[in-house]
Amino acid sequence: MAMKRLIYAVMVACAALFCSCTDDVDMLTKQKDSIVKYLTSSRRLIDEQEVSSSLDENPPFYTAFNNSSYRHITNYYEQGREEWMEVEPNSIIDIQFNAYIFSGSEPSLKDAYWSNIPETIAALEANNKHQYDHLIWSQEPLTVRLGRGEVLEGLEAALVGCRDQDSVQVYMTSQAAYGKHIIGSVPKNSSVAWYIKILSVTR
After folding, report:
1. How far is residue 95's CA from residue 28's CA, in Å, rounded to a whole number?
2. pLDDT computed for residue 73 by the predictor
3. Rounded to the nearest 5°, which phi and psi values hold at 28?
4. Residue 58 vs residues 75, 78, 136, 166: alpha-carbon distances, Å
5. pTM (predicted TM-score)
């Protein structure tokens, strides 16, 4: 009898684990689909793999990293950009940014959960003073050291290959961001978007 109870308990645990894994896969698939739909419809971007077959001379595109983070360099075709210093896996970069919880549509002020841009911080505080009285966000550039695990996995992957002075939009599934952790006002299992201006690059 005890053996039967043990076997039953193991079977129930395995079933619960299988359901949990299936739910996680479904959630991540929905997040990926939501990001790609936004990029291809609202942003009118194409996958980087389709650039060579595009009839447009300079088609705007996004790059996918492990199907969990997606990058759009808004100034990619700017004249002289290829001469700017490129971000490498061990680079140190200074950035200005707005970070948003991403729900599948254009991020707005109400979706912001972190920023070091003075205008954004002032707008948040003015928009809902009581809610943002506690903000002590620094308005100084954020120094990001790549290769040390100091930043979000999806953000680190997307920043490599960018260049000094680039404007970059990075969209991440929860897998590439905070996962099941609750970070400040960011609920667990949230997709996020970071809008970044690279101010400097050193190696």
Report:
1. 28
2. 98
3. -65, -35
4. 11, 10, 41, 17
5. 0.85
Tokens of 28: 């991540």
Contact 156, 173 (CB under 8 A): no
Quick one: tokens of 120? Answer: 């954004």
Of all residues in the chain, what percent are helix, strand and coil, respectively (each to 5)?
40, 25, 35
CA 82 to CA 57: how far, in whole Å? 17
Q: How many CA atoms lie within 13 A of 163 on its CB side?
A: 13
pLDDT mean values, one per 10 residues, the chain (203 residues): 46 42 85 96 96 94 94 97 96 97 94 93 80 76 93 94 98 93 86 98 93
Please give the pLDDT value at position 139. 92
Closest CA to 190 of 109, 101, 70: 101
- Give me 88's structure tokens: 């490498």
Radius of gyration, CA atoms only, the chain: 20
What is the full DSSP assignment across 109-152? GGGEEEE--HHHHHHHHHHSHHHHTT-----SPEEEETTTT-S-
DSSP labels, 76-97: TT-TTGGGSPBP-TT-EEEEEE
- Which run of H or E residues covers position 196? strand 192-202
Residue 6 is predicted with a pLDDT of 43
